[in-house]
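User: Hi! I'm working on a homework problem where we have to compare a predicted structure to a textbook description. Could you give me the structure for the chain below?
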Amino acid sequence: MKKIFTFSLFLCLFSLSLYAQGKSYESVINELDNVIYNKGKYLQNREVRISSIKDRIKNSYNKSDRYALYDSLYTEYLHYQTDSALSCVRIMSKLIPAANSAAHENELKIMTSEVYSLMGMYNEAYELLCSIDKSTLDRSLLNYYYRTLRAYYGWIADYTTGTEEKKRYLLKTNQYRDSIIITTDNKIDMGIVEAEQYTLKGRPDSALVILNSLIKQSSDRQQQAYINYTISETYAAMDNIEKQIYFLAKTAIVDLENGTREYASLQKLAEQMFEEGDIDRAYRYLSRSMEDAVSCNARLRFIEVTKFFPIIDKAYKIKEDKAKFVSNILLISISILSIFLIAAIFYLYIWMKKLSVMRRNLSIANKQLQAVNKELEQTGHIKVVYIGRYLDKCVNYLDKIEQYRRSLAKLAMASKMEELFKAIKSEEFIKDERKDFYNEFDKSFIELFPNFITKFNDLLMDDAKIYPKYGEILTTELRIFALIRLGVTDSNSIAHFLGYSLATIYNYRSKLRNKAKASKDEFEDDVMKI
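Assistant: Happy to help. Predicted structure tokens:
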């Protein structure tokens, strides 16, 4: 059990570790997605910077100042809109300051060559660079010259398909890296080039040590983008795809936030995302790269995108077709399920109505059953009370008959014939017994229905209310309706029980029905409910 727990804990920690790594990777990609979504804002920022420089140019009348402003405008346009950058160089050629004009002319040639390279005019770019006497260049301009040559050979190498030619151009690129290191005064730029050389020599670990140190020293965002891109290339040489994607994404974020349109980061990232199976992002990134390459008129970037775009486009369309097919299947399934659901709801509705009727009928039956049970309970109680009293009365009556018989026997044995005949003819015994019987009946009834007299009078008009006299329990009228309350409704039975004629009982019943507050026909039913 302990081993199972330990193994489960290991799996949980391992899963959490993978999740954390994925989260870190996704966070940068999500940030890039947000930057792409807000691309209009970043391009507008660059346009604002360009407009600001143009406004300053309009208000400047000094050639040297205007030259410097067009130089700044060239920098803004170089990786944003190459045609406009080339226009800036041509305008600058007319504004060359008199002082050190040769140096400015060489600088403009390098600038033009740089634009030509971006535009894919490699022959023109190379001719211009060859026309420059590098011995006349100062250290700063010479470094710019070597950087442009390195970029030129790098682009030519990317553009070339032949293996031997590509190797030759890459060798040239590496040679100019050495020249850049010799002529640069910027330690960060020097470190970037040295890191590139370490990577090419198969020492990516050494390159990462330099680059990780540089990223902490640099405060310039564009320079940080170069460092991040170089780190991604180093991780690519190490076959660490996850880290390569991470730093390509960081580079692309800076490129896009700066409003740059000529870049390599996003299209390379698109290729890696495609390899990772994220076709949606690959398509979106490559589409953005193509759009920016066309807007910038960066021929090499456009060619790089178009070489890979058909593959991603085809995969994206296949995925879209599959998604549409699945959507159609789901839609049909949902429609069928909806029909079944509607039918089930309708069927359930019918059964709910039936169930409601059944519940209502059951409720009514239950109430009726409760009423019957109550009535049976009451009837049972009545029977218990009256049977008990009846049995007791019968025993007493038998005792009295026995005593009466003995008294008559004594008179007969004593030959007191006159007293015997007198006792036999006397009705006093029967009257007393009947009176005692009715008294017991009244007591039992009032014990069962203590509020009978009050409720019975509530059914009558005020002038017809009946109350027993002092010493009485029930009057004759009340006794008649007491019998009705007990279920004895036949007038003959009532007359026989009370020892009255049928007409007398009928008159009593009719008289009180006529005095009822409510319906006369329902009077006795109301009495039964007391």
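For your comparison, note the following. The longest helix spans residues 299-413. Residues 198 and 455 are 115 Å apart (CA to CA). Good luck with the assignment!
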